[in-house]
């Protein structure tokens, strides 16, 4: 459900680093590691100062 919610939110605002970072956490919980990494990197690309995205990479 979380993935669906973040996907819907991202259709409205596709340049929101928080959405990508939170979706990365959801992917991580589902062991979708490649998708989680991709979302973390996209989050950082959008906002290089968003420290939470760097933390999720660790």
UniProtKB/TrEMBL annotation:
A GO MF label: molecular adaptor activity
Gene Ontology CC annotation, any one: membrane
Tagged with keyword Repeat: yes
InterPro entries listed in its UniProt record: SGT, TPR-like_helical_dom_sf, TPR_rpt
Gene3D superfamilies: Tetratricopeptide repeat domain
Upper lineage: Eukaryota, Metazoa, Spiralia, Gnathifera, Rotifera
Source species, domain of life: Eukaryota
Source species: Rotaria socialis
Gene Ontology biological process terms in this record: post-translational protein targeting to endoplasmic reticulum membrane
Protein name: Uncharacterized protein
Keyword Flavoprotein annotated: no
Keywords: Repeat, TPR repeat
């Amino acid at each position: 459900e979380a993935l669906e919610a973040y996907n819907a939110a991202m259709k409205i605002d596709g340049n929101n680093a928080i959405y990508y970072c939170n979706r990365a956490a959801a992917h991580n919980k589902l062991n979708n590691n490649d998708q989680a990494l991709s979302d973390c990197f996209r989050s950082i690309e959008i906002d290089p100062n968003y420290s939470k995205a760097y933390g999720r990479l660790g």
